[in-house]
Amino acid sequence: MRFKTVIGLEIHVQLSTKTKAFCSCPADVFEMPANTAICPVCTGQPGALPVVNAEMVDYAIKLALALNCKVNEYSRFDRKNYFYPDLPKGYQISQYFYPLAVEGYLDIDVDGTTKRVRIRRLHLEEDAGKLMHEGDSITQAKYSLVDMNRCGVPLVEIVTEPDLSSPREARIFTEKLRSILRYLKISSGDMEKGALRCDANISVVDVEKKVSSNRVEVKNMNSFKFIEKALEYEEQRIKEALVRGENVEKETRGWDLSTKTTVSMRGKEEESDYRYFPEPDIPPVVVSRERIERLRFSLPELPDQKKQRFVQDYGLPEYDASVLTADEWIANFFEVCVELTKKPKETSNWIMTEMLREMKEFESEELKIKPEHIAELIRLVDRGEISIKTAKEIFPEMFRTGKMPGRIVEEKGLKQLSDEHTITEIAKKILEQNPHVVDQYRSGKTNVISFFVGQVMKQTRGTANPKIVNEVLRRLLER
Ligand SMILES: [Zn+2]
C-alpha cells in the first residue's frame, strides 16, 4: 500500500421549497420557460431587498440534524463577490463566516464495515442562473443566452472533512445522502436535473516517500457512476505523476463525458479571491432552541434507524435491511407485504432480487405491482402449487401487467404437477425408452438420475414438482 487517497466532498443540494431563497418566485424552475420565474430581487435590481425564506431555513436545519450537525442559533449571510453573466448581482449570497451548522457526521457502509465521514459545515446559499452557449444543442443559439430562472433558488452546501479514501466511498456517501434527502422530502436529489451536485477535492499521499500531491478539484460529475469514474481517473493520473517523481497542478478539472477523462478548467481560486463580507441587506438568522427541537421532533425515521428496526423486528440480515431501507417506498412496500405474508426473509428475497431488477429495467413507468402480488406468489409456492422456477418465470409478467400470479398460472397452465401417479406414469415411460441409462444407474453411476429428472421436467414443461420427481425416480430405479 504505497499510496493513500484522500478525498473530501462539497455537495450542493437544491431544496424543494415552494419559493426561492429571498423572494416569492417559484423555486421549482426546472421545466419553466426561460426567464419566466424572475423578479427584481432575484435578478438583482437596484433597491430590491431580499427576505429570508423561513421554509428554506427549516429544511436546512432538518438536514443538519439528520447529518448529526451542531445547529448554530446564530448564523449570517455574506456576499461572495465574483462576476459571471449568470450572476446579475455580481455576488452570490452565501454563508461564509457563520454557517448554519457545523461538526456533523454521516456513517456509510463500505463492504460490511461502518465508516464515519465527518461533516465540516453545512450552510445556505442561492443558486446562480444558467448560460446556454452559442451552438447549444437545445436552443440552437447563435449567441450565448442567459436564463435567470435559477437565480435565487435555495441551496444547501455540505462540506465534508477529507475522510473518504476511495472513489467508491465518495459514491456511497453521495448515494446515502440522496437517500436521506428523499426521506426528509426536502429535495428530489435528482443528479441529472442538477438537484444534487457533487464536487470533490482529491489528493494522493505517497506513504513510502512521505509526500503528498497537490489537491485537485473535480467538477461536473452529474451521476453517481461518474463520481466514481472521474475520481478513479484522477486518482490514477495523480499516482502516475508521483511515480515519475512529479506533482500535479493545483487546479480545477471537469469530467468530460465524451473522452471519459478529466480536463483542466482553471486554476483553483483562493477564498480570498471572493472578498467575502457580511450581507448588509439581511439581518442575522437567529433560530431558537425550541425551533431546533421542534424540527428534531418532526424528523421521520431515517434509513439507519429503519435498517436497525428491520434487523431487530424482522430478523433480516444487515445486508437485506440496508438494501430495503435505501429507498423509503421500497421499505414501506416491504412492510405491507410482510403484514400479509408473515414471512420477512422470503418477502425480502423476492423484493431484493426480482422486483428491484424489474424496477431498474422499467424505471420511468408507473408501477402496477402491489404487495398483494408478492403475497399471493409466496402463498402459491408455499402450497406447492407452483415451483420457485415457475414463480420466477411469471414474475416479469405479473410486474408489468399487474395480473395476479394465480391468474397467470391458470392462463398458462403452469400449475405445479404434484400428482404422484401421473409423475410415475411419465417416469416409467422414460425409463423404458432408456434401458442403457437405467443399467448405468444400477451398476453404481447414480448421478445419471439427473438425466431422468431433466427428461421428466421436459415432458411436463417444467411443472413437475422436483421433490416428487426425485422420489419417484429413485423408487423406480432402485427396485
Ligand atoms: Zn424572484
From TrEMBL:
<dbReference type="InterPro" id="IPR004413">
    <property type="entry name" value="GatB"/>
</dbReference>
<dbReference type="GO" id="GO:0016740">
    <property type="term" value="F:transferase activity"/>
</dbReference>
<dbReference type="InterPro" id="IPR006075">
    <property type="entry name" value="Asn/Gln-tRNA_Trfase_suB/E_cat"/>
</dbReference>
<dbReference type="InterPro" id="IPR017959">
    <property type="entry name" value="Asn/Gln-tRNA_amidoTrfase_suB/E"/>
</dbReference>
<keyword id="KW-0436">Ligase</keyword>
<comment type="subunit">
    <text>Heterotrimer of A, B and C subunits.</text>
</comment>
<dbReference type="GO" id="GO:0050566">
    <property type="term" value="F:asparaginyl-tRNA synthase (glutamine-hydrolyzing) activity"/>
</dbReference>
<comment type="similarity">
    <text>Belongs to the GatB/GatE family. GatB subfamily.</text>
</comment>
<dbReference type="InterPro" id="IPR003789">
    <property type="entry name" value="Asn/Gln_tRNA_amidoTrase-B-like"/>
</dbReference>
<dbReference type="GO" id="GO:0006412">
    <property type="term" value="P:translation"/>
</dbReference>
<dbReference type="InterPro" id="IPR023168">
    <property type="entry name" value="GatB_Yqey_C_2"/>
</dbReference>
<keyword id="KW-0808">Transferase</keyword>
<dbReference type="InterPro" id="IPR014746">
    <property type="entry name" value="Gln_synth/guanido_kin_cat_dom"/>
</dbReference>
<dbReference type="InterPro" id="IPR042114">
    <property type="entry name" value="GatB_C_1"/>
</dbReference>
<protein>
    <recommendedName>
        <fullName>Aspartyl/glutamyl-tRNA(Asn/Gln) amidotransferase subunit B</fullName>
        <ecNumber>6.3.5.-</ecNumber>
    </recommendedName>
</protein>
<feature type="domain" description="Asn/Gln amidotransferase">
    <location>
        <begin position="332"/>
        <end position="477"/>
    </location>
</feature>
<dbReference type="GO" id="GO:0070681">
    <property type="term" value="P:glutaminyl-tRNAGln biosynthesis via transamidation"/>
</dbReference>
<dbReference type="Pfam" id="PF02637">
    <property type="entry name" value="GatB_Yqey"/>
</dbReference>
<comment type="function">
    <text>Allows the formation of correctly charged Asn-tRNA(Asn) or Gln-tRNA(Gln) through the transamidation of misacylated Asp-tRNA(Asn) or Glu-tRNA(Gln) in organisms which lack either or both of asparaginyl-tRNA or glutaminyl-tRNA synthetases. The reaction takes place in the presence of glutamine and ATP through an activated phospho-Asp-tRNA(Asn) or phospho-Glu-tRNA(Gln).</text>
</comment>
<dbReference type="Pfam" id="PF02934">
    <property type="entry name" value="GatB_N"/>
</dbReference>
<keyword id="KW-0067">ATP-binding</keyword>
<dbReference type="InterPro" id="IPR018027">
    <property type="entry name" value="Asn/Gln_amidotransferase"/>
</dbReference>
<keyword id="KW-0648">Protein biosynthesis</keyword>
<dbReference type="InterPro" id="IPR017958">
    <property type="entry name" value="Gln-tRNA_amidoTrfase_suB_CS"/>
</dbReference>
<dbReference type="GO" id="GO:0005524">
    <property type="term" value="F:ATP binding"/>
</dbReference>
<keyword id="KW-0547">Nucleotide-binding</keyword>
<dbReference type="GO" id="GO:0050567">
    <property type="term" value="F:glutaminyl-tRNA synthase (glutamine-hydrolyzing) activity"/>
</dbReference>
